[in-house]
Amino acid sequence: MSKMGKNILNSFKDILGQYCTINQFVELSKRCFVSEHAAQLSTRKAFIELATQNHITLTSYNPDNMVNAISRSYIVNVQLCFETFLKNACREVKEFSIKEYHEKLQDDSWLKCARLNILGNIIPREKQALFDLCEYYRLVRNTAVHDLCDVKSRKREYENLKKYNFKTEAKFAKLLAPNEYENISFDDFVMFSRSCVELATFLFNEIDYDYSKIVKAIPSCQLHTFRRYSDARLEQAIFSYINTWYKVDERLESQMEDLKKIIRA
Q: Between the chain's N and C termini, which has fewer beta carbons within 10 Å?
């Protein structure tokens, strides 16, 4: 459970927003640096002199490689946030869903695990491109961090994206992405982050919570407080608690009497 008083989706959006702000600042700094120091970046000797003047010892003096690596680091940051959300979603399905939970297989991604446990084997046609995009960028992240991704697998996922026309989507229309691993850019970061937010929102809204399981897991100190409430106030408290930490749907009202009984038991 989030310590910020938010459900897993809102917590994910907040943390991702912080990373996006950092990525945007780094990109601005990078562009200014490359523009202002084009001459020093043109030769290895001049680049070393620039670094020495600023009391920095670099392990590599290939600016093109480093500029590209910065763009891949954006993907790493977004995947870190997204995978945390997916793990939390799987945990909540396991603990509080009306559906049977299937443990993640070793070779499966957390996205596939969440998808199977929330949606089953059916992916809405209009969401398939988002799933494929996020899986591709996950492989980019794996390669960027510790080369866990098989090159053929990454290239296969990239080729698979060519069947989609992302330019028809307003959120992607102006982006020069997706790109292959060697050419990952800031636009890839924008595409990935937007895809993650849309996909996380979709998956979260599809979770079928078992409200009785949620109520039974309310901390004892909170239950002690709830039991002192009148029926009307208790109903409001239950709604507020579930709406804050999870989400509510039309089923909650029909189950309210049973939930109050659980709390007062």
A: C
**Gyration radius of the chain over CA positions:** 23
**Residue of 193, 250, 136 whose CA lies nearest to 21:** 193
pLDDT tens profile 83-112: 999 999 999 999 999 999 999 999 999 999
Nearest to 17 by CA among 72, 71, 90, 85: 85
Q: What is the pLDDT of residue 148?
A: 64
CA distances in angstroms from 115 to 81, 91, 110, listed in the order given: 17, 13, 8
How many Cβ atoms are within 10 Å of 147's Cβ, its own excluded? 9
Query: Which two structure tokens, joined as six digits, stand for 146?
Result: 């510790």
**Reduced to 3 DSSP states, what percent helix, strand and coil does the chain have, rounded to the nearest 5?**
70, 0, 30
Question: What is the reported pLDDT for 26?
Answer: 97
Q: Which helix (H) or strand (E) element contains residue 53?
A: helix 44-53
Whether the Cβ atoms of residue 8 and residue 204 lie closer than 8 Å to each other = yes
Enumerate residues 6+ apart whose C-beta is below 8 A from 110: 83, 86, 87, 90, 104
Do the Cβ atoms of 116 and 110 come closer than 8 Å? no
pLDDT lower than 70: segments of the chain: 1-4, 147-149
- From the list 204, 199, 181, the residue with the least C-alpha distance to 76 is 181
Predicted TM-score of the model (pTM): 0.93
